[in-house]
Every structure is written in structure tokens, then in C-alpha cells.
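Marked as duplicate of an earlier ticket. Keeping the data here for the record.
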Amino acid sequence: MAKLSLIPAQAAIRTRLLADGTLTALLASATSIYDGVPDDAEYPYVVFGEKHSQPWDVFGKDGHDDSISIYVWSRALGDEECLTIASRINELLHGFALDVSSAGFSTVLLQLDMLDTMREPDGRTRKSVSRYKIMTQE
């Protein structure tokens, strides 16, 4: 059975995002990139959302077509803060080869699949969601 690549892919994405001073300067703190959001998190922050994995096996090579959603949460007026942060994330990720070699994978593809912005029912909180397609092979 093929190993799942989502865990090392998310870890590599988080490492890349946290290493970028331009991105972390836009967030509430230098560590405001979460898998699970703490109760005391300050806005703006980034959180990993839904994940999807579709394994494949071609000519004896195992791989995965994965997707990871990345949310940006903000309390600023309008969408500009969310979109500025999402844009920086896209600059860091789109076309980048994630280092997942320690888990036995190589990245074939990493690209933005979609981006949406939304206002929450409280009328103040905004979010953007970006979904990234990731293709890996063992």
C-alpha cells in the first residue's frame, strides 16, 4: 500500500511559509500559520483546511494527486488584507517543488487551483480560501 503524501506535503508547505519574513510580517505573529487554530489566535492568521488525496499507480510507480486548502482569516475592513496575504502565499507556493524527500516522495506539481474570498455572518470577519493541487510520486 502506498504511503500518504499529505502529511509531509503540509509540513513542507508550513516550513516554507514560516521561513518567509515578508509573509510572517503580514500576520499577527511570526507563527500564525496553524493546522488547528488556538482559542487565543489573533487576526490575521493562516490555517490549513480541507485535504483530499487520490492515489495512483502507473507502471509500478505510486503517487498521489492531492489538494490542500489554505485559509487566510482577517478582521480588516474589505478583502485587501486577505488577498495580500493569499497573494504572498501563492508567490511562495505556485510552481515550487516541495521537499518531501525525507518521506520518500518527490513533488511533480504544485499549483494554485482556485481562490475565493468570503465575509463571515458576523459582518466583520473575512476569509480567503486557496486550494493547491499537489502531485507527488514515490
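See parent ticket for discussion. The chain has a mean pLDDT of 93.
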